[in-house]
Design goal:
mainly beta; Jelly Rolls; 6-stranded antiparallel β-sheet; 5-stranded antiparallel β-sheet; 13 strands
Length: 165
């Protein structure tokens, strides 16, 4: 039976700053300019990664400048919480069972704060993330717990659970 360790080893995954493990699998050889001001310069047309998360660990609230398309590959369902710039909370449930409201794909819009975790004890989720324009760590912002909770006090308990002090 395949477990998280199997995928980490076989796919050559490394720790990610937000939590979990990842490896970039694609970066377009072409660059795009003329992007909105939220980008500090040109970006690859698109990038893709593998991302793996194990219960009870979580991917802490963060945001990026581009839309991010998530793809479910293996394991247990993964829940992604998203807070819009206006403060609206929504979720994606990525997983193998559409009859349980799970999807194989979902989108986190640019500029949304988002975090993810598994609710299945002992479980893991292997997903992929595709970003266009391509991901650059210059566009990555890890939430500061107290600052994010001050902006969205209605979501304080969730922010405290899915962020680092």
């Amino acid at each position: 039976m395949k477990n998280a360790g199997f995928w980490i080893e076989q796919l050559g995954l490394e720790p990610h700053p937000e939590g979990g493990y990842y490896r970039q699998t694609y970066q377009s050889g072409e660059m795009t300019g003329g992007l909105p001001e939220r980008y500090a310069g040109p970006r690859a047309f698109s990038t893709a990664i593998y991302f793996l998360l194990e219960h009870p660990h979580f991917s802490a609230f963060h945001r990026i400048a581009s839309d991010e398309l998530w793809h479910f590959y293996a394991g247990s369902a993964l829940k992604v919480w998203m807070i819009s710039p206006q403060g609206t909370l929504s979720t994606l449930e990525l997983g193998p069972d559409p009859s349980q409201g799970q999807s194989f794909q979902g989108v986190v819009p640019a500029g949304y704060w988002f975090a993810s975790a598994l609710e299945t004890p002992g479980g893991y989720a292997l997903v992929g993330c595709t970003v266009a324009p391509g991901f650059d760590f210059a566009d990555f912002e890890l939430a500061r717990r107290e600052e994010l909770a001050a902006i969205y006090p209605q979501h304080r308990s969730l922010i405290e659970r899915l962020s680092h002090p």
